[in-house]
């Protein structure tokens, strides 16, 4: 695990200067994720099947959840703001959840292979961004004091043709509505958990008292902070 709480001091002011002018924070999140995806594909010269990318994104999001849990187990360690660390693990999870939506929509468009040129063709595509907004339209409620990210990831995995011992026929197309529902919930779950850990003294106790419609400016700020660092990492050859 890499400590990330210091990123607020490094990028926080610049990120807020950018985000406070944003009118639609939800569309902004997809726009910035597409730009980051384009940067990574170009820098790393990525060529990968869309199906494989979807599977890798589920795995990556699960790994971020595990890292968040590992930080949670360290709550109370003197000298480390554990809540900030947990928040940024969920922000990393949000990056992968947004990219799941983006990649799934590309797959639904008939894109079977991803490369720098294909991804670049989607960056800045307003029609594509508008189509992605359906993921934010998915109803989402917190029940009790727990959000089960792994359960949502398992549901997303169930829409993919990942089992080599099974025979599939147009499985993703048939499961696409289910994919949208679960990825939409995953995006909101990751965002809400990040917000809770960065903003509140007792996040789990207060989960059910927060209106999810009120969180997106703060979430966009946290996301932008990590987005700045992700671009910087690419420049450093990460």
Structure description:
With 238 residues, the chain is an all-alpha fold. Helices cover 65% and strands 2% of the residues. It is built from 9 helices and 2 strands, in the order H-H-E-H-H-E-H-H-H-H-H. It has helices spanning 7-19, 25-44, 50-72, 82-108, 116-122, 126-132, 149-157, 171-199, 216-235, and strands spanning 48-49, 113-114. A two-stranded antiparallel ribbon has the order 1-2.
The 3D shape can be described as globular
What strand order characterises the main sheet? 1-2
What portion of residues belong to β-strands? Answer: under 5%
Number of separate strands = 2
Q: Helix and strand succession?
A: HHEHHEHHHHH
Helicity, in percent?
A: 55-70%
Present the secondary structure layout.
Blueprint: H1 7-19, H2 25-44, E1 48-49, H3 50-72, H4 82-108, E2 113-114, H5 116-122, H6 126-132, H7 149-157, H8 171-199, H9 216-235
Antiparallel strand pairs: 1-2
Helix pairs in contact: 1-9, 2-4, 2-5, 2-9, 3-4, 3-7, 4-8, 4-9, 7-8, 8-9
Summary keywords:
238 residues, two-stranded antiparallel sheet, mainly alpha
Summary of the model, kept short:
By secondary structure, this protein is mainly α. The chain contains nine helices and two strands; from the N terminus they run H-H-E-H-H-E-H-H-H-H-H. About 4% of the residues have low confidence.
């Amino acid at each position: 695990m890499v400590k990330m709480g210091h990123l607020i001091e490094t990028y926080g002011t610049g990120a807020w200067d950018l985000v406070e002018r944003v009118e639609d924070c939800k569309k902004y999140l997809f726009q910035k994720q597409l730009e980051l995806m384009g940067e990574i594909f170009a820098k790393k010269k990525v060529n990968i099947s869309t199906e494989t990318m979807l599977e890798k994104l589920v795995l990556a999001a699960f790994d971020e959840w595990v890292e968040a849990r590992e930080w949670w187990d360290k709550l109370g360690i003197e000298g480390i703001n554990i809540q900030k660390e947990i928040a940024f693990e969920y922000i990393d999870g949000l990056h992968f959840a947004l990219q799941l939506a983006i990649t799934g929509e590309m797959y639904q468009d008939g894109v079977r292979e991803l490369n720098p040129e294909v991804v670049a063709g989607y960056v800045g595509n307003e029609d594509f961004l508008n189509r992605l907004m359906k993921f934010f339209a998915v109803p989402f409620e917190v029940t009790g004091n727990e959000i089960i990210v792994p359960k949502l990831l398992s549901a997303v995995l169930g829409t993919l043709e990942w089992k080599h011992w099974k025979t599939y026929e147009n499985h993703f197309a048939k499961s696409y509505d289910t994919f949208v529902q679960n990825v939409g919930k995953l995006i909101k779950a990751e965002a809400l958990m990040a917000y809770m850990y960065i903003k509140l003294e007792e996040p789990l106790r207060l989960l059910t008292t927060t209106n999810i419609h009120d969180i997106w400016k703060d979430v966009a700020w946290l996301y932008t902070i990590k987005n700045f660092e992700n671009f910087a990492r690419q420049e450093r050859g990460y």
